[in-house]
Design a protein that fits this description.
By secondary structure, this protein is mainly beta. Helix content is about 10%, strand content about 25%.
Length: about 400
Amino acid sequence: MGQLPRRLPRVASHREDEAVSWTSRLVLGLLAALAAAPATAANGNIPRTPPIFPPHACLATVDRSVDARFEFKVGIPFEDTMRTEDELDDSRTFEFFALCRDDPPATAFPNWIDLEDAERALAVGNIDALPAAADVLAGAARWAIGHDGGEGSCVHSMGPRIPISCDATQDGVAWDTTGVPAGNYAIHGYTFAPADNEWTPRTGVVQVHDGTPLPVAAFASPVYDATVYQQSGYRVQGCMGGPARTVVTLAWASIAAELDGDVPGVWTDFAELDAADAAFDVLLVPPQSAIYEGLVMRATAEDGAGHPWVAYSRGYLTIYPGDDPSDEPEIPPGPDHCAVGEEPTAGLELDGGGDASSGEAGDASTSADPGAREGESDGCGCDAGPRGANALPLVVLLALRRRNVPK
């Protein structure tokens, strides 16, 4: 435990009157500022509770010609059901969404799902004014473009809101994909707790198709910010699949660049892969010019017959000079409050040291995958873990320890 700060020295007696006067003015100023501040719920200063996603395959496939349901597990860092008097009845709940595209890790998501939620929050005094259109998911131009680049929503609710409790989350989430377009989906959890709501991404990709696989790729590392020594490099891992001749291109870019879209000169390719291999485990040795940079990864899966799928890593690589051991691409999941007494599950790993049976073209299976769940394909054994560390409470952060690989 760090040393507590020492007391400030006592003000000299001949200045006490001046100090009292200054303190009085400060208190009055703060009270005035608080009175003028926007109205918020009494839970405004409480960190929002994110869902925890236990280990799972980084690529899950839903073949609707066989079964249209997809199920996945959800954990919680603690139960959060004690609402304050001025909160909405459905505050402190989870809702899960499937988005038709992946986005760079710094992408800002709208705070509100629809205008009705904001209007209810306004009515009880959680907010002082309705949000701008760009801060409402429903109807926002960015999220009104479907898989094919045309009309059709990119956002699909996976079910009703559920309380943040063990009873409500113990069965996980079951998503009926019958009514959604075929394609790849990134899953996000949404914590509804006005005035400040929170998004939590689930690492990996879920592909929905009707018997014909689609180009796809997903990262299993990095999912957290990792320390990398330039000469040692870092193992970038993930899963991929698609029809015959699907090619996956891996690239890196500085986090300071414009990552959304394909701006010339931003992305540097470092691997071209055959998606039939199902899994990838590529050593990235960044150039010296990347030292002291933060890097994000991108994977583009394309078969030349349609729109490519683009996936981004959830975490960053921070590059340092030298050849010391870099962080492993493996971090255990955060503790699940409702799973006390259960055996811990391993973090990010590829089965067989990175070897995967290719099977038929587009099959993303391996000989064994202890991280896969019912309703998922065997995947590549890549555990996706919970969201980035910046969204977890301190008790979760303390449980996330990085391990080094030997030189």
